[in-house]
Give the backbone structure.
Amino acid sequence: MSKIEEYWGKDKRFYSYNSYCMNNFETRMQKIPINAGFTCPNRDGSKGLGGCTYCNNVSFNPFYGNNSKSISLQIYEGIEFFSKKYKSQNYLAYFQAYTNTYDELTVLKQKYKEALSNRQIKGLVIGTRPDCISDELLDFLEELAKKKYVSVEYGLESIYDKTLEYINRCHTYADSVEAINRTANRGINVGVHLIFGLPQESKKMISDTAKEISKLKINSLKIHQLQIIKSTIMADQFKTKPDQFSNFSVEEYVDLVIEFLEKLRPDIVVERFISESPPNLIVNSNWGGIRTYEIVKLIEDVLVKKDTFQGKKFFIPKKKK
Ligand code: SF4
């Protein structure tokens, strides 16, 4: 068995989250999404107003992520829900909604500790913006990571500053690189998010993103297609300037993902390929309601058909002497 097969799992053509969990925890890990009542600096004026043009947090908060409930209750209900679906697994608290490092340090610590007080929670996954991580918080997370699993997930969305400006992210790609380095250098796991299909990005720009992020000290990656959600700034832009959007078909998207995977470093865990927002909120195509597992199966089938795999076109540039 080759080294890659050993950690990807036999017959796998990309490094899946399940393989990663089996390698590191010897069991399935389920993330319990939490809405801890944070806000976002890109909404309250400290960075920007109105938020990212595509953002509507309603679309990614499941029923058990309601911040009128305590973190403990959200975790309890999340575990109740997922334990019926899968028998053998452990759990991670996933601070998902808005910017989960945006508060006083004492408040952050208290919320993370509340999540970890449930004995079934084995660690934290904290979603945030790259411009919203303090050294004091990294000090705390560095110590915590010596005892528990800790991952900080940064929303990069794009590596192109022109795109970031257009979608009003109010940070640059350089901010992302800096945050990733500062976090990874503390021994904390780092994940990143990317969106495929943002306005004015060509397929080549998107697949070349793999080469760039392969240089970063990241452990995992989530990608998803652009879903334009009702009542967002982007929904208005889509209505008035639809030509600016790629609006990939399923087949185009699958091919794009495969091109991207081929250029991606083989040890980066690919946690997600698509997102599924509630169909009644989507303004652009929802691909006839195709489900996540169906897309993953399509990607796997095409990888086999093309006899290709994650990292096939990845190479380490030689250092200049
Ligand atoms: S996408 Fe994230 S960073 Fe952007 S406005 Fe929404 S919560 Fe804030």
Q: What stands out?
A: The two ends are 35 Å apart (CA to CA). The longest strand covers residues 149-157. The beta strands are 28-34, 89-95, 121-128, 149-157, 189-196, 220-225, 269-272.
